[in-house]
Every structure is written in C-alpha cells, then in structure tokens.
Amino acid sequence: MNRVDYAAMSDQELRRYFLEHREDNAAFQAYLARRREHSRSVITTINDPDFDNKIQAAINQQMAEYRGSSAD
C-alpha cells in the first residue's frame, strides 16, 4: 500500500483527499490537526464594552503581520 504524504498536500488537496477517502483514518486525523492549526481565537463579543478597541487592535496586529511577511 502506498504511503500518502499529508504534510505535502495543500489544505484544499488534503480536504479533497479526505472527502474522497473517508475510510482513511490517518487522513481524517491529519485534516483535523490542520484545522486546529488554523483555528481563530475569539477577539471579543458583541456586548463587550471595549469592543471597538479590541477590533481595532486585532486589525492593526494583522496589518503589522502582513507588512512584516511581505517584506521577506
């Protein structure tokens, strides 16, 4: 049986592979691990009195990260 290199697959390729090979438990576990890596944290809630400041801070952080990664 051929070994499948899940790490070499893009997110879309891994998702497509898993959907086509639902019996492949290792693919399922790799897919779940990848999803956990990309999960987003909750920044704030609607009723938070500091909602606007938290959203603005998150936007500023993402912009700074983008600027830093595009400088490479």
Description of the molecule:
- The protein contains 3 helices and no strands.
- The protein has helices at residues 11-20, 25-37, 51-70.
- The model has no long low-confidence stretch (mean pLDDT 89).
- Helix 1 (11-20) runs antiparallel to helix 2.
CA(first)-CA(last) distance: 41 Å
Give start-end ranges of low-pLDDT stretches.
none
What is the N-to-C order of secondary-structure elements (H for helix, E for strand)?
HHH
Mean pLDDT: 89
The percentage of residues in β strands lies in under 5%
The percentage helix is 55-70%
Largest sheet: none
Task: Summarize the SSE layout with pairings.
Layout: H1 11-20, H2 25-37, H3 51-70
Annotation keywords:
60% helix, mainly alpha, elongated, 0% strand, single chain, 72 residues
Nutshell version of this structure?
Helix 1 runs antiparallel to helix 2 (25-37). The protein has 72 residues and is an all-alpha fold. It is built from 3 helices and no strands.
